[in-house]
Amino acid sequence: MMAALEHVAYETPTPVQAGVIPVAITGADVLGQARTGTGKTAAFAIPILERMDQPRKSKKPRAIALVPTRELAVQVRDEVDRLSHGRKLKTVALYGGKPIKSQIGRLERGCDFVVGTPGRVLDHLSRGTLQLDELEVIVLDEADRMLDIGFRPDIEKILRSCPKDRQTLLLSATVAPAVEKLAQRYMRDPTIMDFSPKGKSADTIEQRYFTIEQERKFDLLVRLLEREKPEQAIIFCRTKRGTDKVHRKLSRKIKNASCIHGDMAQNVRDRVMKAFRAGESKLLVATDVVGRGIDVTNISHIINYDLPQSSDDYVHRVGRTGRMGREGVAYSFVTPEQGGELTRIEMLINKLLERDEIDGFQAVAQAAPPAEEAKSDDPEKPAPPPPPGRRPRKRHRRGL
Asked: Is the model's pTM score more than 0.70?
C-alpha cells in the first residue's frame, strides 16, 4: 500500500483520511460526516484494500461501494484501481446506461471490489449474476444524496442481502434523520466522526452574487467569463432544457464549451467528463448531475446560472471548486424575486455573499416613469378633481 500511495503521489493524509483509516482498518463500523472534496474515497478504499491483502480463489466480491450517480461510480472505480497499483485485484463498476451483458461477463470472470449505483446492483442481485454471501465490507458513499433521490428501498434490500457480520462504512455530507435511521438499523455500534467545518461551505471559496433580470442572464454570463477568464468552470442550470439552451448559445461565442445532463446517453456523458477532466474542455454547462462527488481539481470557478432548488444543493455545487485546499470562486445569478432563496443559502452557510457588479453592464433595467408623470411639465400641478358622483381613487404605495 505504501508503494501504491507513492505511485499516486499521496504524501499527507487529509483530516478525513487521518481519522477514518485507523478506525476502519480495525474492522469497526464507521459513520463519517464530511463534505465532498476532502478525500473520502481514499479514506474507505485504503483500509478495504489492506483487508484484501491476502488473495483467495473465490470469484465473489469481498467489498462493495454504493454511490448515487454513474459518474461517481466510474470515479470511485478509477481511484480504487489507482490505489490497487501492484496488486492483483479486480474492480468492477455497475451502473445503468451501459449494456448489462458486458457487466455480467466481468462478474463471471471474478472480481474483488464492486462499485455501483443501487438500482443496477439490485438488478444484478435479482438476476443472480451478483452474489454477496462472501462480502466483508459495504460502503454507502454520499448516503444523504442516495436517500434524497429515492434509493432507500433499494439500499435496504441490498443491505439485507449482505452477511450480518460484515463491516459497514457510511459516509455522508450531512447526517439527516433518514441517514441516522439507516445507521441505527444496519450498523453495529458505529464510531461517529464529524469532519464538517462549522460553516457549511469551505473557507477557501470566495462567494459572490449578481442581481440580474432573467432575460439578461446570458449577457451577464458572457461578460463575466470575459472578465474572469477561468481556468475551468462549471455553469449550473436548473433544467435539462435550460442546460441545452445555454450551451448552444455559449458555443457560438466561446470555444471548448461542453454540456452534460441526465437525458444524455451514458457513453456521451462519459466522453464529456473525460474531456473535462483532461482539460480539453474549459467550460461545462451542467445540471445537478455533477453537483456531487465529481472530482476535477482544476475547477477555478462555479457559476450558478440558476439558483438550485434546495440550499443544500448550493453547498455541493460550490464544493466543486476550492477542492483539497485550493482557492476557488463561486458566482450566483439572483433574480429580483429570489431574495428569499439567497437569504436561506446565507443562513445555511452562515456567511453573507458579497454583491458584485460588472463595469458598464446594466444588470437590471431601469423602470420607465408612468405615462402621466412623463407627460406632465409641471410636477407641482395638482391632479384634476374626480367627476361628480365618483369617489376619489385611493393612492397606494407599492412595495418593492
From this structure: no
